[in-house]
Amino acid sequence: MKKTFFYFICLICCIVMFDSCCKCGRRSSAPLDLNAVSWKLIELNGKVVPNQNDIKKFTMIFSKDGEINGRGDCNSYFGRYTTPNNGEITISPDGATKAMCPDMARETEFLEMMPMVRTFKIDGDILMLFNQDNKMIAALKKI
Predict the structure, then answer these.
(1) Alpha helices of the chain — where are they, by DSSP H?
(2) Which has the closest alpha carbon to 45: 122, 121, 112?
(3) DSSP category for residue 114
(4) Whether the Cβ atoms of residue 106 and residue 49 lie closer than 8 Å to each other
């Protein structure tokens, strides 16, 4: 009886130690860092964005104080963002310059996408933005 009880206690201790050491697929509670770099748009509403080598076009920069800015095709924009919980985000573009761009349709689509974003995920050097239906509406790459 004492031997069985001893093995039972050892088994419980092993389970507790394993559980406390292993992440076992648990999601990290550490905040996802948007502020480390500039982001370059590579996909928008399921379409690959051409001219990805031009690092000055279709960018997003998130500052630690809740401001966002960047460029579309040829116009600069600015606004605010909040991340109330890990992985959640709201983006509120406040304004943009008004020059006529060669790719005005994509720039408009880019700017109109921002208020639709509800969540984000960072996988390596890729930032994915999702709408309220959890559909990816944009992907950006660190630059």
Answers:
(1) 2-21, 104-113
(2) 112
(3) G
(4) yes
